Amino acid sequence: MTKMKHQALFTDLYELTMAASYLEHGMIEPACFSLFVRNYPPHRSYFVSAGLAEVIDYLDALSFSPEDLEYLEKTRLFKSDFLSYLETFTFTGDVYAIPEGRLFFVNEPILEVTAPMIQAQIIETFVINAINFQSMIATKASRSFHAAQGRPLVDFALRRTQAADAGMKVARASFIGGFIGTSNVLAGKQFGIPIYGTMAHSFVTSFEKEIDAFRAYVRTFPANAVLLIDTYDTLSGAQNAARVGQEMARRGEILRGVRLDSGDMVKLSKEVREILIDAGLSSTQIFASGAFDEYKIQRVLNEEAEIDSFGVGTKMGVSADAPYLDMAYKLVKYQGRPVLKLSPGKSTLTSDKQVFRFVSPDEHLEKDTIGLRDDDFEGAEPLLKKVMDTGNILFSSPSLPDIQKTFSSEFKKLEDNYKSLEGAENEFPISLSPRLKKLQRETIEKIKSVELNRN
Q1: To which H or E segment does residue 287 belong?
Q2: Which DSSP helix (H) or strand (E) runs through 4?
Q3: Position 303 pLDDT exceeds 80
Q4: Which domain-ending residue is among 266, 288, 310?
Q5: 210, 227 contact by CB (below 8 A)
Q6: Cα-based angle 238, 240, 241 (whole degrees, multiple of 5)
Q7: Closest Cα partner for 242 from 271, 277, 206, 279?
Q8: Which pTM does this prediction carry?
Q9: 98: closest CA among 60, 32, 50?
Q10: Per-residue pLDDT for 39 more than 80?
Q11: What are the pLDDT digits (tens) for 52-64?
């Protein structure tokens, strides 16, 4: 991931003000924080984990530079002893996390951090920012992947994502969620993602005639030409592309594809297919772009559009119908004492936890149980893996293709009713372990006795 300067300052001010107060009052004992999503956005019934690699890199390198400390001093908010403390600040905690590419569900801990209180508090903003966005995009991408029914998808979102950093993360997260590649060349270089592209309308209009543009392009890219055919009239463009394709065939070359970017995609794709077949270009593929997301992909395929692959851009890259996750990072244990929130609609599960996944004999995801970290259930897989121990990285982040394989394998095990674009008929079954239920009840009773029954 592209790294910004002064990452230690990429935090909300209140993380630092709380940290300063913790230090002043000697609150430096181990604390456990849990990251989770409270609710499903509309029409969602699962999430895809993404962003962990960025979090691990951030924690591994976290420190305050002299320039950072100079800036904080200039704010006149912090005492000298706190600034001195930050001079040698590093992350020395433990991290358990659900690996990238795995599915998770509401209220399940995606990541838990156990570290000295100040460390665990200061990292909150970055952790949420990294995992919230990338998991949101990977989930959105997976829905297009499901709707496409095996047809290849390419990320076309770069020009309309919210700034360059988002464009890089969208390319990576959409690849995790099943896309075959991206138009983003820098993401291709940095992450090893295959890159794809065709041409813009400006290329066509820069020539006097559309067919001249097509001929010029295939001369430059004889093995990789996809012609954009809707600049003036789609069917006329298809006829011109077919002529160029026949010329290529006589040279021993193959026109790879044509692209539709506007109009009635169902009707036009069928008519373009006929033109290509009549010209003897049955192997030339029809690629479609233009405001596609999972809903439009599903609609055109249900109407039997002749489309072989899709470019999916803006609506995926900003997760237009669900542009955020209600993700929270909450203290669940301090100094060995279980803690929780009782706020209406925002209550939390106490203590350090584990998610246990059960798979049915026919290889379908059956249910999850959220339990205490040291619970044990025969036949269940513990999802949270220890990825950092006392600040040391315990694993090498898998390659993106391997993460995508992890997603693909698990996604196949999720029943189709949970993948429905209109939302699942029933939420995926999640329960609490008996020991967690008991501790939750005891902790609530203790809080009520201390905080709510005062005279």
Answers
A1: strand 285-288
A2: none
A3: yes
A4: 288
A5: no
A6: 60
A7: 279
A8: 0.95
A9: 50
A10: yes
A11: 999 999 999 999 9
> Domain of 275: which CATH number?
3.20.20.70
The residue written with tokens 């936890």 in the block is 353
3-state secondary structure of 35: strand
Mean pLDDT of 226-238: 98
Share of the chain above pLDDT 70, in %: 98
355 and 426 assigned to the same domain: yes
Distance CA 311, CA 406 (A): 23
Domain co-membership, 353 together with 250: no
- On whether both 345 and 283 belong to a single domain, the answer is no
- Determine the pLDDT at residue 359: 98
Phi (first) and psi of residue 367, to 5 degrees? -170, 165
Query: Does residue 127 share a domain with residue 11?
Result: yes
Q: How many CA atoms lie within 13 A of 177 on its CB side?
A: 36
Under the banding of pLDDT at 50, 70 and 90, the label for residue 5 is low
Task: Fill in the amino acid letter for 392.
Answer: N
Contact 384, 109 (CB under 8 A): yes
**C-alpha closest to that of 388 among 53, 48, 15:** 53
Beta strands per DSSP E along 140-275: 153-155, 181-182, 226-228, 257-260
The stretches of 251-293 forming alpha helices (DSSP H) are 265-278
Judgement on whether residues 331 and 442 belong to the same structural domain of the protein = yes
Quick check: 193 and 170 in contact, CB under 8 A? no
> If you search the block for the tokens 């979090």, which residue do you land on?
55
Residue ending a domain, among 233, 268, 288, is 288
CATH number at residue 34: 3.20.140.10
Same domain membership, residue 435 and residue 329: yes
Provide the pLDDT for residue 395: 84
Q: Which structural domain range is residue 224 located in? A: 217-288
Tell whether 162 is covered by a domain.
no
Is residue 1 a part of any domain in this protein? no
25 within 8 A of 79, measured Cβ to Cβ: no
Alpha-carbon dihedral of residues 368, 372, 378, 382, nearest 10 degrees?
Answer: 60
Two tokens, residue 113: 């951090």
Asked, for residue 210, whether it belongs to a domain, the answer is no
Which residue is it, tokens 């790294």? 3
Same-domain pairing of 436 and 352:
yes
Q: Calculate the alpha carbon distances from 183 to 60, 71, 235, 307, 316 in Å.
A: 30, 38, 26, 19, 14
Residue 163, judged by CB atoms within 10 A of its CB (0-12, 13-18, 19+), counts as: exposed
- Tell me phi and psi for residue 145, to 5 degrees: -55, -45
Give the Cβ contact number of residue 264 at 10 Å: 14
Check residue 43 and report its DSSP letter: T
Please report whether residue 117 resides in a domain: yes
Nearest alpha carbon to residue 276 among 311, 229, 211, 216? 229
- Do 329 and 441 lie in one domain? The reply is yes
Number of domains, the chain: 2
